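hi! just following up on the protien thing from before. the input was this:
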Amino acid sequence: MASKSQIMNGNPGRLRRLLRSFGLVALGLSAGRAPAAAQSTDYKAASEAPAAWRDYASRLQGAFQQQIDADGDTSQWLVTFAAEREKENKPLTFVVSASILPDGRMDCIAFDSSMDPELGGRLRPLLASANAGAPPPDMLQPLRLRLRLRSTE
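and the predicted 3d structure came back as:
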């Protein structure tokens, strides 16, 4: 398999742009692990969430990006996967629900039903190993991040 430096040198900047586009589109926070219909009353849109929660979501997004960036094989696979999806006009947007322990380790990573099974299988272990530090004690969980991958030339 190609090393990270080979990937980066083979297509300068493309991987970095892809990973930067692995971005926070919206943030939702919900209490407990109730069914989706029950969670809707506890859901907070990013614009309504306290600043500390938004800051933590941004840190978590960065931790997710670092985990993906550190795995050169997965990073290269994501570049190819995102490019193929774009050719088919299939946006690569999905929701990650993360339950976070008080020390910042991930307790549970789940994806919404729109997640491609192969993509989910590759991302879950990487995201599960992310650590953005301790979450705000009053933050509703699981933290729901809507993420989008784009292949940018």
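Residues 24 and 61 are 7 Å apart (CA to CA).
Residues 1-12, 19-41 have pLDDT under 50 and may be disordered.
cheers
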